[in-house]
Amino acid sequence: MAVERLLKDEATEEKGERARMASFVGAMAIADLVKTTLGPKGMDKILQSTGRGRSVTVTNDGATILKSLHIDNPAAKVLVDISKVQDDEVGDGTTSVVVLAGELLREAEKLTNAKVHPMTVIAGYRMAAECARNALLQKVLDNKDDPEKFKSDLMNIAMTTLSSKILSQDKEHFAKLAVDAVLRLKGSTNLEAIQIIKKAGGSLVDSFLDEGFILDKKIGIGQPKRIENAKILVANTAMDTDKVKIYGARVRVDSMAKVAEIEGAEKEKMREKVQKIIAHGINCFINRQLIYNFPEELFADAGILAIEHADFEGIERLALVTGGEIASTFDNPESVKLGHCKLIEEIMIGEDKLIHFSGVEMGQACTIVLRGASQHVLDEAERSLHDALCVLSQTVNDSRVLLGGGWPEMVMAKDVDNLARRTPGKKSLAIEAFSRALLAIPTIIADNAGLDSAELISQLRAEHHKEKSNAGIDVISGCVGDMEKLGISESFKVKQAVLLSATEASEMILRVDQIITCAPRRREDRM
Fold it and tell me: Strand (E) positions, 261-331?
């Protein structure tokens, strides 16, 4: 019995086959969970949290779904991680990467049951992934030099990304918004400069792109409603010191007159601070904290627009966009960088008043205002748009483009199959399995659209054996279509990330032969 007692009482371990079995099953379950969201006809999931408020999320984004799940299975956690990384790295393809990894493991399970050693499978997968990547590299299109063509590529990529999301009905409209916003960035992948404001009401088609910056605040009372050639001081400071602030302080005074003196001193202090701020020669003061009515009055007298309680993200972005810095002390005006913009005015969106800054320093900045029926619609629209923006900003840097609709998978599968025929030994089984896993993606796209996937995939395969084929699945008409004519394209970077992450994740799970679960820490009796 001495051997058994290696681990603590409640720790469990799974060995060999059983461990591998557990990890395969977990990973495949996760893949099956998200695979119905794949493709233009993919469905959405409702995620309801059990916490307070029972918040409900309706989403189609693989990473969002997986992030919200609490998972016990260790292998499934690996898949959740790769989808998170895919989301941070390139923004789109979060579902594909999980599905592909799941399929690779499903194939690997068959092989290990047929007594092929996992290391052999891994070696085969490595070769296959390399081969698949090269296949894509040969077929890639690059229209960097022709701005017109490149812009249409970007439009197509945006429409393809959006077509599996809630925005698919108005995808032209949103693709245009996204492309315009990203082209303004001029090649930087910093999406901070694109602000997305969500306003319930109206419908999704009413969304628009506004150059400049919109702050979700109202303009104070009795203050100028529009300012031209604004000099903006962005600050984070307390403007509420006309009351005694020392809590629990007891001030003994002989008469009411003395109280008035104290209050007067406080007011003086405030007035000095305001004077210092005005000395910067500004005509717009934006503060992150609240501004009491006394200093607000002083600002209004000086003809300065004062905005209080600007939310923090808004204020940081505002400082970034107008080229100013956030100040908290005002003693030396020369060292503070002021922000500039051509015009500040109040605009109405739906029911709400917002403040609009136009002609800002950073030409890249813009604001996308989303309108929609309800908060859930808006949240999902924002996620979809964020995916599109990420993919586009990556594509602007790495302008290589592929066709979509299952075309890249077919191209890769064809080359990988050829490699399998040339490779001697058991590795060839793994390489063949890899190509079957790649075919799963177009299969699932077809299945989700309710088409006969077996029929379609065999037609596709036949098409791809001809030279230079552009065949992919046309979900709308339900048959094999020409992807170039339909304008369905994807970013090379996304596809490559999907391929490599999925391969690496499945490799990692394949290497497992033992799962040891730690014993929970006992709570000692504190009595």
Answer: 284-287, 305-307, 326-327
Nearest CA-CA partner of 22 in 502, 520, 513: 513
List CB contacts of 488: < 8 A, sequence separation 6 or more: 156, 159, 160, 403, 404, 405, 407, 472
| Strands annotated E in 109-192 | 141-142
**What is the maximum span of the chain, computed from C-alpha positions, in angstroms?**
103
Long-range own/partner contacts, residues 523-527 (CB < 8 A, 24 or more apart):
none
- Which among 455, 484, 464, 475 is positioned nearest to 141, based on CA atoms? 484
**Joined tokens for residue 315:** 């204020």
CA atoms of 59 and 55, how far apart (whole Å)? 13
**Segment 27-51, tens digit of pLDDT:** 889 988 888 988 888 888 888 887 7
How many angstroms separate the first and last alpha carbons of the chain? Answer: 34
Partner residues linked to 339 by β-bridges: 232
Active site residues: 61, 94-95, 387
Within a 10 A sphere around the Cβ of 109, how many other Cβ atoms?
A: 20
Query: Which residue is associated with the tokens 């979509």?
Result: 404
For residue 257, what are the contacts with CB-CB under 8 A and spacing of at least 6? none
Taking each helix axis from N to C end, the angle separating 94-113 and 16-35, rounded to the nearest 10 degrees, works out to 150
Model's pTM, two decimal places? Answer: 0.83
CA angle 282, 287, 290 (to 5 degrees): 135
**What is the spatial distance between Cα 316 and Cα 378, in angstroms, rounded to a whole number?**
23
Place of tokens 């007011």: 267
Beta bridge partners of 235: 287, 327
Q: How far is CA 331 from CA 213, 238, 300, 303, 334, in A?
A: 29, 15, 21, 21, 9
How far apart, in whole angstroms, are the C-alpha atoms of residue 222 and residue 304?
Answer: 10
Residue 485 zone, left/alpha/beta (φ > 0; ψ -120 to 50; rest): alpha
Structure confidence at residue 103 (pLDDT): 92
Identify the three-state secondary structure at position 376: helix
Strand partners, 201: 372
DSSP run (H or E) holding 489: strand 489-491
Rounded to whole angstroms, the Cα distance separating 100 from 109 reads 14
d(CA 399, CA 414) in angstroms, rounded, equals 25
- Which amino acid is residue 348, in one-letter code? M
In angstroms, rounded to a whole number, what is the distance separating the alpha carbons of residues 389 and 90?
10
Q: What does the alpha-carbon distance between residue 490 and residue 407 come to, in Å, rounded to a whole number?
A: 10
Cβ burial of 301 (10 Å; 0-12, 13-18, 19+) is: exposed
Query: pLDDT of 74-99, one tens digit each?
Result: 888 888 989 988 888 888 888 899 99
Distance CA 68, CA 77 (A): 12
Six-digit token pair at 285?
Answer: 């003061």
